[in-house]
Amino acid sequence: MNAHLQKLIVLLRWGLALGLGGWLWRQGHPIGAMMLAAAVLWGHVLILALEFLMLPVINRLDPAPAAGLRQHLRAWWIESLACSRVFGWQQPFASRREPDHLPTDAAGRRGVLLVHGFFCNRGLWNDWLARLRSADVPVIALTLEPAFGSIDRYAAALEAAVQELEHRTGSAPVLVGHSMGGLAIRAWWRAHGHDTRVHQVLTLGTPHAGTFMARFSAARNAGQMRLGSAWLKNLAAQESAAMRAQMRCYYSHTDNIVCPASSAALAGAQHIHLPATGHIGLLYEAQVFDDLMQCLRLPAAS
Description:
Radius of gyration: 20 Å
Protein name: Alpha/beta hydrolase family protein
Strand order of the largest sheet: 2-1-3-4-5-6
CATH architecture: 3-Layer(aba) Sandwich
CATH superfamily: Alpha/Beta hydrolase fold, catalytic domain
CATH topology: Rossmann fold
Distance between the termini: 41 Å
Number of domains: 1
Keywords: Hydrolase, Membrane, Transmembrane, Transmembrane helix
Number of helices: 10
Largest sheet: 6 strands, parallel
Shape: globular
GO molecular function, one term: hydrolase activity
CATH class: Alpha Beta
Structural class: alpha/beta
Order of helices and strands: HHHEHEHEHEHHHEEH
Organism: Roseateles toxinivorans
Strand content: 5-15%
Oligomer: single chain
């Protein structure tokens, strides 16, 4: 359903650009037609620019290192390209292009579970899926549905995937969550997990303490991600120090969605700051994937 909805949005944008642009062209306004088409198809670049313009104000009191103008510009440019690719192609039209990799001889290896964020789907992880399959790493990428439901409702899907990886490999998997996906992992852990079922958890731009941007959505899961929400406080109150010690939180002072920046850090976890990187851009930072591969080689904690 997530892919169908995103596909509809993309097709509507193209239809609007071609329809209104074509009408203006026929009326003798070619420049206006091209400007309108560009605004419809590339308007997200301007929206992203607005988000990055807000960041210095939102982050002004945050303890994360302050970002300079060049870092904001770099993050905005890379984020614009990444969002065009992810939301314009991978998620709407190619969400099933890269299948899960569950080899029959996976026993003794360690698997990976990939969990996307708000209004995304498994297509977000296409590059990761291809690279993990090339390395013969057992991997499952989920699509969380309903897209705008409670984060707690995703726990059952995560449990089924974790059980599948446990069954195939005989080992506790590494769980990787982008944005809301990290909260879905924590919600699963509260409902089903214990320390021995998880080798390590990596969260990328996850609003562990909420995010300023969540106020702009009326969705239930967005409400749960508001700064200081009751849901987040309740989740944190039920977590152990041992659990958080198994987590790595990647965050950035130029994350245009999860801000203030330090809201993506979780007390008791390991924190890795990635400068000049936007929200989707975190997925394309080489250090994150390299760290995942290193995690897969680490022995289980005793």
